[in-house]
Amino acid sequence: MNSYAEELHEISEKCPPHGFKKAEIILKNYPLAEALGFDKDYVDSDDCLNIFSGNKLLQDSIPIAQGYSGHQFGHFNPLLGDGRAILLGEINKMDIQLKGIGQTPYSRRGDGKSALGPVLREYVISEFMHALKIPTTRSLFAIKTNEDVLRETTLPGGVLTRVAKSHIRIGTFEFARTKNNQALKTLADYSINRHYPDLIQTDNKYLSFFAAVCDKQASLISKWMGLGFVHGVMNTDNMTISGETIDYGPCAFMNTYDPKTVFSSIDHNGRYSYQNQPAILIWNLAKFAETLIPLVDEDEEISVKKLTEVLQLTMPTYQEYFYKEFGEKLGLENIDNDNSKIIDDYLKILHSESIDFTLSFRNLAKIINKSMSVEDSVFSKSEVFAKWFRSWKKEINITEVSTKMNTKNPCYIPRNHLIEDALKQAINDNMTEINLMSELLKKPFEEKNEYNKYTLPSPNEKYVTYCGT
Ligand code: AMP
Ligand code: MG
Fold it and tell me: pLDDT: is 361 or 2 the higher one?
C-alpha cells in the first residue's frame, strides 16, 4: 500500500520507475528483509531483483515522488522534492524507497541517478548507525545498475533501497505551507497519526507534535555528537519529523577531537561543523515552527508565542541528552553539575592534546582495568590528565566501568580512509573489503586483535566529502 500517495496527493506526484534491465543486487540486508516479511528465497529471486531495480511493481504499489522544499545552507528553495527517488509504498508501516532510480517530476535538470560508490557508502554507514541504536533510515539492498552515470567522470551507477519510518521532512512541511492550509493540516494529521498517535487526544495536538519532534531531534543530535558524527548537510529537507538520520551524502566521522571539524567540500563557513550541529538543530526547528503557525492557534500572535516557548526549551533538553550521552560514554554513575564538569574537562583534554575521539574512550576503559598503561594510550602522562583521572575515578564503579564503557563506545567506526579504500575496490568489482567492513561494523563493540587496523585513524588525514551523489 501507499498511504502517502492516497492521502497526500497534493504534495506528491505519481511516477512509475523506468527500471534498470541489467541490474544486480550486490549488498543484501537479510535481517531487515526478514523483518519486512521477505524470506531468503525471495530475496535471492529474480522477482525481488526486478522489483528493487524498478523493472516490475510490487503488488498494490502506487509509486510516487514526494514534493518538498528546504532551507539549504540558510536559503529557501521552494521546489526540491524527490529528484532521484521513488517511494514504492509501505510494508509493515515502513517506507520502501528506491534512490537513484531515474528521473521524476522533481528532477529539475538532474538525471535522477546515483553513482554506485555513494550508494554503498550510505548502505554501510546507515547500517552502522543502526547497529549503534541511533535512529536512522535503513538500507535493504545496494544495486549495481551496470549502466554508467555521468558526473565529472563516468561512474558506475547504483540504486539504494532505503527503508524509513517515513520520508517526511521539515522541508515537506515547508512545501505544504507553500500550497495551502488544508494541505498543511492534512500533512500534519497524517504525520501525527503515523508517528505520534499518542498525541491525537492532547489539547493542542499540533503544539504537542512540535514538542515531540523537537525532543526526538534533540535526542538524535546528542547521539551524533556522542559518536563524532558530522552530518554535513543539515538542511531542513534533510531533517525528518520521525527523528531518523537521513541523507548520508557528505557525512563523515571525526578522528582527532576538534569541535570545528568540517568535511564537506561545499561547507566553506563551517555552518554544519561538528560543534554547530546543536545550534543548527534549533535553527531548523524554528523553520519547522514557522510552518505550524496556522495550525497551533487561530490567532497568529498566540501561535507564535506558544511555539516559541516550546522551542526555547529545546536547547536545555538537548543539553540534558548530551550530558546523558557522554555520561554513559564515560561510565559515570550519575549526571549532575559536578559530572558535567568531568565531561567538559575530558573534552578539553581531547582538544588540547589532539586526541582521536573514538579511540580515547576505548583506551580509557583499558587504562582503568589496567590492560593498558597511560604511556601506551592516546593520552599523555600529564598532570592535567592525572588530575582529571582522579576526579573521574570518584564517579565510577571501578570494577564494572570498563565493561559498561565497551558496550557504549564502538571500537570500529567507518573510518574515512578505510571506507574510501573499500569503495574504490567495490566499484572495481572487488567486494571483499566492503563486505568485511560491513560485517565488523555490525558488531562495532567486539574488538578483535586481527582487525586492529580498523580501529586506527589514518596517520595523515585531510578528508573531504562531496554532495554529488
Ligand atoms: P540531496 O543532496 O541528496 O539532499 O539532494 C538535494 C536535492 O537535489 C533533492 O531534491 C534531490 O532529489 C535532488 N537531486 C540530487 N541529485 C539528483 C540527481 N542526480 N537528479 C535529480 N535530482 C537530484
Ligand atoms: Mg537530501
Answer: 361
In a domain, 264, yes or no: no
Torsion angle of alpha carbons 234, 238, 240, 245, nearest 10°? -70
The residues facing 285 across adjacent strands are: none
Q: Which ligand is nearest to the CA of 240?
A: 2
Ligand 1 binding pocket includes 231 (Cβ within 6 Å): no
For residue 68, the tally of other CB atoms under 10 A from its CB is: 27
Asked if residues 234 and 265 have their Cβ atoms less than 8 Å apart, the reply is no
Amino acid at 341: K
Residue-wise pLDDT for 106-135, tens only, equals 999 999 999 999 999 999 999 999 999 999
Tell me, yes or no, if the pTM score tops 0.90. yes
Tens of pLDDT, residue by residue over 144-181, are: 999 999 999 999 999 999 999 999 999 999 999 999 99
Residue 148 within any structural domain of the chain = yes
- Does ligand 1 have an atom closer than 6 angstroms to the CB of 169? no
Distance 378 CA to ligand 2 centre (A): 36
User: Is 356 known to be catalytic?
Assistant: no
Does any domain span residue 450?
no
pLDDT at 468 over 60: no
Residue 72 near ligand 1, beta carbon < 6 Å? no
334 confidence band (pLDDT: 50, 70, 90): confident
Q: Which range marks the domain in which residue 101 is found?
A: 3-164
Of 355, 381, 406, the domain-final residue: 406
Per residue in 27-39, is it b (16+ CB within 10 Å) or e — as a string? bbbeebbeebebe
Q: Please give the tally of structural domains in the chain.
A: 2
From 237, 247, 267, 356, active-site residue: 237
**Full DSSP string of 335-384:** -SHHHHHHHHHHHHHHHHTT-BHHHHHHHHHHHHTTSS-TTTSSS---HH
For the cut 80, the answer to whether the pLDDT of residue 336 exceeds it is no
Identify the domain boundary among 358, 387, 406.
Answer: 406
Asked if residue 288 belongs to a domain, the reply is: no
